[in-house]
Write a structure and sequence with these properties.
mainly alpha, 2 domains, two-stranded antiparallel ribbon, 2 strands, about 0% strand
């Protein structure tokens, strides 16, 4: 009973709504970007329509939502695309509460699943994040809902369940750890000379521009390859750091309790480097959106106060 009471107490913890609201806004912008870039580039017909209607390949019957809307057709595809953009916009501005989050989730999944070869794992990560906003009241502040309810865009008194943000941390760490465990190629190990990153940068399907100039920097790419694998494989240490932060003790546990900031900093630099050198869709921004969960809402407030003090 004592253990159960502690578990109930843990799940009953609440925190300021600011963190979840920032997470919602960033997710919504990522959804708008992911769908919008396809529309902007004029390739909706090419990748999301069947070969019968101008697509590059024969598509399957599609997800259940496609069947519900009458099956594969140009009209259905555009309905999915436009609906996804509209609901993602409503989700971003925070109008409609959990309903707009659920609608954005369904329509984004439907659009991105029209062609399983046209997306990436970041689509699944993005939908996981939106689902967290279905579970939690993400429009409690920084939203149109908040404006209608309280007359304010930001309600500093609004609170949300803390476990929603914890699930975001769990999700992104699980994604990193599983990715590290699946790097089975010898090129990620000493056997292959830690050459994975160098070869990835030489593949035209990945790099943004011609990358032969990297050759003299080959030893540096080896170091980065090794660091990235260790960083991903040992990502669960972040979970341990949060535990030690909640239960502080002197000694080496103090360093582990602050490890999340080391992980955070290395991750930001890594993803910005990936974005600068490689074509990876919205992968960088979707993943960095989950980094918002690493920061407690009170830490956001302190950071904002610090910035205002320095600006004047």
């Amino acid at each position: 009973m004592k253990l159960w009471s502690r578990w109930v107490g843990l799940l009953g913890e609440r925190e300021p709504a600011l963190g979840l609201a920032l997470f919602r806004i960033a997710l919504g912008l990522c959804a708008l970007y992911t769908i919008g870039i396809v529309v902007h580039d004029g390739i909706v017909e090419l990748i999301w329509m069947d070969a019968e209607y101008g697509g590059y390949r024969k598509l399957s019957k599609g997800p259940w939502l496609v069947e519900l809307l009458g099956g594969m057709s140009p009209e259905m595809t555009w309905a999915m695309v436009i609906g996804s953009l509209v609901t993602a916009a409503l989700f971003t501005i925070g109008l409609g509460g959990r309903f707009s989050a659920l609608a954005a989730l369904w329509l984004f999944m439907g659009a991105s699943d029209l062609n399983g070869q046209s997306g990436g794992s970041y689509d699944e990560l993005l939908t996981c994040g939106i689902f967290l906003c279905v579970l939690g009241p993400s429009t409690a502040t920084l939203s149109v809902d908040c404006r209608i309810r309280s007359g304010l865009w930001h309600d500093p008194t609004a609170t949300v369940p803390a476990w929603v943000r914890w699930l975001g941390i769990f999700q992104v760490i699980l994604a990193y750890w599983s990715t590290g465990m699946q790097k089975l190629s010898a090129y990620w190990t000493p056997v292959g000379g830690y050459s994975a990153l160098f070869y990835i940068l030489q593949q035209p399907s990945w790099h943004r521009f011609e990358m032969t100039w990297v050759a003299p920097w080959y030893p540096l790419t080896q170091v980065v390859t090794a660091l990235v694998w260790v960083w991903e494989a040992f990502a669960p240490i972040v979970w341990l750091s949060y535990w030690f932060k909640r239960h502080p003790q002197p000694g080496w546990r103090t360093w582990v309790a602050n490890y999340r900031w080391v992980f955070f900093g290395f991750g930001v630099m890594t993803h910005l480097g990936v974005f600068a050198l490689m074509e990876v869709g919205s992968f960088t921004w979707v993943t960095l959106t989950f980094y918002l969960c690493f920061v407690h809402p009170d830490e956001w407030k302190r950071a904002w106060a610090w910035c205002r003090a320095r600006v004047g």
